[in-house]
Amino acid sequence: RKEFVDLYVNYVFNESIRKPFEDFMKGFLRGCPARRWKMFLPVELQIILQGHRRCDWSLLQKNVKYSQYERLDQTIRNFWTVFHKLPEEKKKMFIAFLTGSDRIPGYVLEHFTFTIADPKVENPDEFCPSASTCHRILFLPR
After folding, report:
1. What is the extent of the structural domain holding 97?
2. Given 8, 60, 70, 96, which residue has the most CB atoms within 10 angstroms?
3. Does the pLDDT at position 104 exceed 70?
4. Active-site residue flag, 32
């Protein structure tokens, strides 16, 4: 039985995926030569490629820039009060709304910034918040 289980596990995790993995590896190495990746530990490489899974939300708040707002404006204080009450999954959904990904890029965790801007609309109650994902700007009507 042990031999059967060992052979089966080897087949499922190694042999059955060998050809697709070799094809993937060939394509990956064509665009990203292996010598450049060897300087990273596997955990570091995963963070660089996928981004950070966890975020320091207080640090995020500290790094935000404001356009046509001040840090102590009532709209901003209300925003952060509501934001910090959200569950972790909803906060990640906000990051996805803002940037297009629910993860902070791997190389900028401490320096990740975004801007909260007033869209200067005539009737702010008729507008929902929107985002410019390319520039990481949240347009938050007053």
Report:
1. 57-139
2. 60
3. yes
4. no
